[in-house]
Amino acid sequence: MFNKVIIQADERGLLFHKGSYVKKLMPGTYRLFPGFSYKVEVLNIAKPFHLEGRDLKLFLHDEDLVRELEIVQVQDHEYVLHYEDGQFVHLMKPGVYAFWNILKKHTFLHADIREPELPGGLDRSILPKIAVYVQSIEVASHEAGFLFYDQVLQRELPPGKYYFWRGPVSAMVKTIDLRQQQMDLIGQEMMTEDKVTLRLNFVCQYRILTPSRVLEMKGFDEQIHIQLQLLLREYVGTLKLDDLLKRKEDAASFILARLQEKENGFGVQFLSAGIKDVILPGDMKEILSTVLLAEKRAQANLITRREETASTRSLLNTAKLMDENQTLYRLKELEFLEKICEKIGSISLTGGGDLLERLGALLGDKRAAGQ
Hints:
- The protein is built from nine helices and 18 strands.
- The strands form seven sheets. The chain has a three-stranded antiparallel β-sheet, with no helix packed on it. A three-stranded antiparallel β-sheet has the order 8-7-10, with no helix packed on it.
- It has helices at residues 63-66, 211-216, 220-236, 241-246, 250-260, 263-266, 282-324, 326-343, 355-370, and strands at residues 3-7, 11-17, 20-25, 28-32, 38-44, 69-74, 78-84, 87-92, 95-100, 106-112, 134-139, 143-149, 152-157, 160-165, 171-177, 181-191, 197-208, 268-279.
- The protein starts with a strand and ends with a helix.
- Helices cover 34% and strands 35% of the residues.
- Helix 3 (220-236) crosses helix 5 and helix 7 (282-324) packs across helix 8.
- It is of the alpha+beta class.
């Protein structure tokens, strides 16, 4: 009684005798004599060539079989992307693989992961399928990026999105913000030339022009902060308190000019600087308030005296004019009379004499009666 084996058109058979591979069997019907230790393994040629428990090397001596296989060896430093008829299938890690080349066309893209950046020609649409093997890093439009492999600088990166293999080489990108930035010095204690201790709030705006210079400096922000402190102390220490309060705006010009001398060293452009607030001790505030109040009172008194002097001078000039001009004198009499009439309902005069003298006598009599 024969053992019947049928191999379909999309299959191949592997004949074994006493556990050893003999040859490949094409599609068809085969009858095996029982008891002769023959065995046939049937494989689907639409699937990868794989036989559980058998090493691929056991079959490579069969040239007829090898002609129908695509054999790929993935080195330890590689990832290989497998495509079937142009469509991505999967990523292969180190090892040896074989695929039937009968029904499908197999192509392979070898990637050396010792060079972490993904090949430029790789279709980005497959990245979600291999996300576990890839890391992505973005450099924003307002940034400059610097690529490091195992902490060694490689090159500067323009804005964009970059992909790297997760492999033996660590890839990292450091970014530098190129937008206008601001540094604040809050509550800086300073001493003026006349030994008054005060606190200042200072601000400085700058923009990084040479990002590579920033990478070369340890504690870039801290170094600018210290430079601002030193320049501010230098400026404040040469002025008395009154001069500082009067020339507070000059601090911006002085410090900005000194900072601009150091732009090349920092790789930045200093745009503006200035004192936001001058905070005085409590007792100094009271003293200044007293001084200010005294100054304002003195100014008010000076203005009052000036106005009184001007008024007296005006009266003197008027008197001179009236003495020299009788018409003007009569007009003043009428003006005087008009003012009296505005205050008194009616006036009765008897007897002769000058009008002004009689009015004067009347007013004198009324004042005497009031007393």
